[in-house]
Automatic annotation (TrEMBL):
A family per Pfam: OEP
Location of region: Disordered: 115-134
Keyword match Methyltransferase: no
Residues of the signal peptide: none
Membrane topology field: Lipid-anchor
Name the UniProt record assigns to this protein: TolC family protein
Keyword Membrane: yes
Organism: Echinicola arenosa
PANTHER family in UniProt: OUTER MEMBRANE CATION EFFLUX PROTEIN, OUTER MEMBRANE PROTEIN-RELATED
UniProt keywords, alphabetically: Lipoprotein, Membrane, Palmitate, Transmembrane, Transmembrane beta strand
Length: 477
């Protein structure tokens, strides 16, 4: 009987589908453009630092300890982990929709129709056994199992499940992208902290140099070789440099708190080795080839999964134009007296039915959903293309930055060396009255600024090293 019902419904479904298929909107097809340049800088070397584990890429034990703690305690990362769990449960829910639903049902009730109604009169004259009339009032007891099942003829439910799987994988890639960004943000903040420590040490040394120069000017004033104006100028320069010390200390506090927040803990001292900052030498970076970004970058993979889900959503929306075939069945026992429930076949109940539902008139809502799904698919294609383009541009920018900063650092180091020597020269000339105090002050200020710029260039070098690792998609695997 079940096969007969299914066959009848399939015939009706085919007829209804032919009626509605001619009115189904067409899909706007557009393939994503995944063509990327063949290389970043003319090299075809496929060695890629993105494959290197973050614990091997960063060699500072204090930095690695911070990253390891952050991957366990960062609140935003933990929130994303719950998003992944939500996506996983959505897959389970979609999978359950194309399986039969079976429920157990039990009930009891009482019914008393009016005696002078057609139903009451008929029941009053009905005998359930010779000499026994129908009970009045009539009780009802029932227990049974009932099932409903929508046959996924057009793949609507399976495609919905596949779309949920794609979004689950997308959420996993989103977590990986978050890991990459988190590692890069902690590393950049750590190197910024080391740079601030070095700048603070430079300021303290400069304060000592300027204080000594101030004492010399005071002695020269007593010898009537300079005026009070020179003394005041040197004092002002010392005060200015001392104020820089507190500005840097404030920046250090802010940066430490930022790192502590990323690590998921309350403010505390960040363990570090600032004296090793000036000895850091950026390593050579193997960027591989651009096509590897499609595999290594989590945001590219996330956009790809979102595109796959959007394509499946179009198929699901299109399937809503076609008939849906459902089967319902039930089996159990029902009687007006509990003692009769086990008396079969009189108390046995069963049912089997098939139903077919198809949209025929006023399908505007379905058409709107279908067109929206199609538009979202095109939107996902553009987003995928934009993500690939952005990934290539980010890598290209960081590689150029590494090369340019290397040249800039060498020149700034020579500048610092020259200005540092000029401080002693200007002091000697000032003592022999062959240079005025303004030349000494300007020389000291230029030397301080050049040292700051050298530290900033070193920090920028280390940040570029971190950012190119992030841009290539390293850290999450």
């Amino acid at each position: 009987m079940l096969n007969r019902i299914v066959n009848i419904c399939m015939v009706v479904a085919g007829s209804t589908m032919l009626l509605s298929a001619c009115k189904t909107p067409s899909v706007v097809e557009r393939a994503a453009n995944t063509d990327v340049p063949v290389s970043f800088n003319g090299s075809q070397d496929t060695v890629n630092v993105a494959k290197v584990q973050w614990a091997d890429y960063f060699t500072d034990p204090h930095l690695n300890a911070l990253i390891d703690t952050a991957l366990k305690n960062n609140q935003e990362l933990n929130v994303i982990m719950q998003e992944i769990e939500i996506s996983r449960n959505e897959v389970r829910a979609r999978k359950g929709e194309y399986l039969p639903f079976v429920d157990i049902k039990a009930g009891a009730g009482v019914d008393k129709p009016g005696r002078y109604t057609s139903r009451g009169a008929s029941e009053a004259t009905t005998e359930i056994e010779p000499g026994r009339e129908m009970p009045d009032p009539l009780q009802d007891y029932m227990v049974g199992a009932f099932a409903t099942w929508e046959l996924d003829v057009w793949g609507k439910l399976h495609n919905a499940k596949r779309a949920a799987v794609a979004r689950y994988l997308s959420s996993v890639e989103g977590r990986n992208f978050m890991v990459t960004n988190l590692i890069a943000e902690i590393a950049n903040s750590y190197y910024e902290l080391l740079a601030l420590d070095n700048q603070l040490e430079i300021v303290k040394r400069n304060i000592e140099i300027q204080s000594n120069a101030l004492e010399i000017v005071k002695l020269q004033k007593q010898a009537a070789r300079v005026t009070e104006l020179a003394v005041r100028k040197f004092q002002a320069e010392v005060f200015h440099t001392k104020s820089l010390q507190y500005d840097i200390q404030q920046e250090i506090a802010i940066t430490e708190n930022k790192i502590n927040f990323l690590v998921g803990r309350y403010p505390q001292h960040i363990e570090r080795s600032p004296q090793a900052f000036s000895d850091l030498v950026p390593k050579a970076v193997q960027a591989g080839i651009p096509s590897q970004l499609l595999e290594n970058r989590p945001d590219v993979r996330q956009a790809e999964m979102e595109l796959e889900a959007a394509k499946l959503d179009v198929k699901v929306a299109k399937a809503r134009f076609y008939p849906s075939l459902g089967i319902s069945a039930g089996i159990g026992f029902q009687a007006f007296n509990p003692s009769y429930l086990i008396k079969t076949p009189e108390s046995l109940l069963y049912s089997l039915a098939g139903d077919l539902t198809a949209p025929l008139i006023n399908r505007n809502a379905i058409k709107a959903d279908y067109k929206s799904a199609n538009a979202k698919q095109i939107q996902a294609i553009f987003n995928y293309e934009k993500t690939i383009l952005n990934a290539y541009v980010e890598v290209s920018n960081q590689l150029a930055k590494i090369n340019n900063l290397e040249q800039s650092y060498d020149l700034k180091a020579k500048e610092v060396e020259a200005l540092t020597q000029s401080i002693d020269i200007s002091n000697n000339l000032f003592r022999s009255a062959r240079a005025d105090y303004m030349e000494v002050l300007l020389t000291q200020r230029d030397a301080l600024e050049s040292k700051f710029e050298l530290v900033e260039t070193k920090r920028a070098q280390m940040n570029a090293l971190v950012n190119v690792y992030q841009a290539l998609g390293g850290g999450w695997n």
